[in-house]
Amino acid sequence: MVGGHSETDRSGKRLARSPRSTEGAEIQKTRPCLVISPDEMNRHLRTVVVAPMTTVTRPFPTRVAVRFQGKRGQVALDQLRAVTGCD
């Protein structure tokens, strides 16, 4: 999920976040995210790059189909964000 408070599941490359500031057409509600940045980078920086998951499907080349917690959806690669990482 994108934003403030966090939980991490490094093995599944998920990062849970609660919403914080968004602008314009950015996804605004709380949602799971896929960590895009490599572990080597994540170990040295205070931020990680994430792509939010959504159940709203769009026929965009920047959307990748996924199944997460029994739901079908997409990873929105057109909505990448850098967020504060978790230990």
Q: In total, how many beta strands? A: 7
> Main beta sheet: strand number and arrangement?
7 strands, antiparallel
* Helical content class: under 10%
Shape estimate = elongated
Q: Any chance you could write out the topology, listing elements then pairs?
A:
Layout: E1 6-9, E2 14-17, E3 32-35, H1 39-44, E4 47-54, E5 63-68, E6 71-76, E7 81-84
Antiparallel strand pairs: 1-2, 2-3, 3-4, 4-6, 4-7, 5-6
What does this structure look like?
The chain has 87 residues and is mainly β. The protein has a single domain, classed as SH3 type barrels, CATH 2.30.30.110. 7% of the residues lie in helices and 41% in strands. It has one helix and seven strands. Strands 1, 2, 3, 4, 5, 6 and 7 form a seven-stranded antiparallel β-sheet that branches. β5 and β6 form a beta hairpin. The longest helix has 6 residues. It starts with 5 loop residues before the first strand and ends with a strand.
Quick overview of this protein structure:
With 87 residues, this protein is mostly beta strands.
